Amino acid sequence: MTVNDSEEAIRDFMSRGGWTFPVMLSGDDMARSYGVRAIPTLVVIDSGGRVVQTIIGGVTASELSSLVDDLTR
pLDDT digits over 29-52, tens only? Predict the structure, then answer.
């Protein structure tokens, strides 16, 4: 989920990183519904729609890659 970023900026970021996983483009209402109180916060949601991890603060590309890999196993 992104907050206050344009769709174009997010698509560019994802493209430069070579990532193809879905990203929720939403605003403050969705952030509140997931309990996001600080930026950055990463909310990892599995294919069943369950929140499997919430990380407050930044993550590295390696950490993000590991999280996505874990979900696809």
Answer: 788 888 888 888 899 888 898 999
Q: What is the rounded distance in angstroms from the CA atom of residue 57 to the CA atom of residue 21?
A: 20
Residue 2, in any domain of the structure: no
What pTM does this model have?
Answer: 0.63
Dist CA 63 CA 42 (whole Å):
11
Domain hosting residue 35, numbered range: 7-71
Please give the full DSSP string across the chain, using - where no structure is assigned.
-BSS--HHHHHHHHHHHT--S---B--HHHHHHTT--SSSEEEEE-TTS-EEEEEES---HHHHHHHHHHHT-
Asked whether residue 26 is domain-assigned, the answer is: yes
